[in-house]
Amino acid sequence: MTEQQPSGGGAVTHREPEQLQAIKLRHPWRNVFAAVIILVAVLFIYDTAFNRSVYNWGEVGKYLFDVRIMQGVGYTLQLTIYSMVIAVALGITMAVMRQSPNPVVSSVAWVYLWLFRGTPVYVQLVFWGLVPTIYKSLELGIPWTEAVVSLNTKDLLSYFTLAVIGLALNEAAYMAEIVRAGLLSVDEGQAEASKALGLGWWHTMSRVILPQAMRVIIPPTGNELISMLKTTSLVTAVPFTLDVYGRQRDIAAVTYQPVPMLIVASVWYLVVTSILMVGQYFLEKHFAKGVTKRPDVMKPSIETSSISVVGEHGGQTTPTYPSAGGGRSIVPPHERPGGGGA
Hints:
It is a single chain. The protein has helices at 28-51, 57-63, 67-98, 103-118, 121-129, 131-134, 153-156, 159-184, 188-196, 201-231, 244-255, 258-287; strands spanning 3-4, 13-14, 137-140, 149-152, 312-313, 316-317, 320-322, 328-330. Helix 3 (67-98) packs across helix 8 (159-184), helix 9 (188-196) packs antiparallel against helix 10 and helix 11 runs antiparallel to helix 12. Helices cover 60% and strands 6% of the residues. The strands form 4 sheets. A two-stranded antiparallel sheet has the order 1-2. Strand 3 and strand 4 (149-152) form a beta hairpin. The protein has 12 helices and 8 strands.
């Protein structure tokens, strides 16, 4: 950009700057890498679809909507929902117990978390499947006296119930830590302000603490729900075999084609997981309101020139302020809206 000085001594004028031509940065190796990945994916899909008879896609289509598979999907959803509801309720209880000032209560909660997080869920389910063998009957009455009521454990607790209990107790240990982390993420001043306003413990938790903690609790809880859906495949350790994994295994034992049946089970796991992921997205979006939104830039409501000021300078009203020397100085340019001289 060059300057031109007129011969008459007028104002300096400037030429319009030439428009810059932005050159896009090239990434040749990135394109090559992407092309290689696409080629490998196409070759894998073609090989899977046409060259591997073991997949037997006709068998997959035959049993994808089979009545037994659909019933298995229903049982899998029931196991997931029942277990998560119990786990969330018990996890909240354990999280509150962990924060209790009572050392006995907090110690009980710590031992529970240590036990159920420190042992594999498959081992726990095996133990729950052995409960009818270990405790053949449940007797109710006064200790060291004859039992008033005696119940057969095998008749009282079905394998489905034992599977729900085993999954829920294991998951509750993880939910307790998730809830505790969410509660700790809320500033203590929120609880103090609620007490100052006269709110009780219930209203403080339900209307102040939990709504703010939910944005921290929801994402890992959604992940745990999806994980629970897949963990239901381990209930064969109880043993409970009416879930989708157990049903496909029973069918494969008859048809002697395990790979197509595993694909059938995987397809249904993917379908349900995708639905849960969509629900998790909208739930996270709901509880994140007011957190990710940025406020608009503040703008002056009136122009600077319309503000009345004090002081006189050249017949015009100008703002003044006390100077360090004891006199008064004029605030510079004021003649244009927003400040600045002509």
